[in-house]
Amino acid sequence: MRARRWLVRGVRGTGRGDRGAATPLAVGLIATLVILATLLLGIGAALADASRLGHTADSAALAAADTLLGWHAGEPCAVAERLAERHDARVVGCTVDELSVVVTVTRSILALPVERSARAGAPDLR
């Protein structure tokens, strides 16, 4: 009987100072993991949006180059602007050379302005 009481109470007295010490530690650890997971998901979503913005710049430049080369009717920069607007981006630069177009688009990602540029058209032979 004494041995059982000693095992239940521990070596020092009643052991009341250690009761429930793991619960706050576990709650703190779970809260930390939830916060880290939320941050990682946010960063992952921002990286995916930045990649999508690069694809939008590529698409807008290709559409503008198709128009410049006469495969579609219209003005190259206007076509690039329409395509960028459909993808929730804004054209901030559109440069038309002889046979190529450089398009720069921007969008706000996590409250930060992000820009991507793309070039499309005939190869640069210089």
TrEMBL record:
InterPro entries: Rv3654c-like (IPR021202), Tad_N (IPR028087)
Keyword Transmembrane helix: yes
Source domain of life: Bacteria
Keyword Transmembrane: yes
TM annotation in the entry: 21-47
Keyword set, alphabetical order: Membrane, Transmembrane, Transmembrane helix
Domain Putative Flp pilus-assembly TadG-like N-terminal: 20-66
Name of the featured protein: Secretion/DNA translocation related TadE-like protein
Upper classification of the organism: Bacteria, Bacillati, Actinomycetota, Actinomycetes, Micrococcales
